[in-house]
Amino acid sequence: MLLFRWAILLLLLVAGVSFAFYAGTGQAKYKRFGWIVLKWTLLAAFGFFAVLIAERAL
């Protein structure tokens, strides 16, 4: 569980750095990459926490 939380944190950091590169350079590829990483990271995080909530409910 700790490993998964660190992975989520690292991926959010990657998305943030990508957006910072976009702000600094203006190249759309950084923004596109940041949105893709952010989208899949949030989906994985919601799935992970849904499993934790379901586990506690049973």
Description:
This protein is an all-alpha fold and about 60 residues long. Helices cover about 95% and strands about 0% of the residues. The chain has 2 helices and no strands. Helix 1 runs antiparallel to helix 2. The longest helix is centred in the last third of the chain and has 30 residues. The protein is elongated, with a radius of gyration of 14 Å.
Number of strands: 0
Helix fraction? Answer: over 70%
Order of helices and strands: HH
Low-confidence stretches: none
DSSP helix count? 2
Oligomer: single chain
What form results from the Cα inertia axes?
elongated
Q: What is the averaged pLDDT score? A: 94
User: What would you report as the Rg, rounded to the nearest angstrom?
Assistant: 14 Å
Binned strand content: under 5%
Q: How far apart are the termini?
A: 19 Å
Helix/strand-derived class? mainly alpha
Largest β sheet strand count, sense and barrel closure: none
What is the secondary structure topology, with strand pairs?
Elements: H1 2-25, H2 28-57
Keywords:
2 helices; 93% helix; mainly alpha
Report a brief summary of the structure.
With 58 residues, the protein is mainly α. The protein contains two helices and no strands.
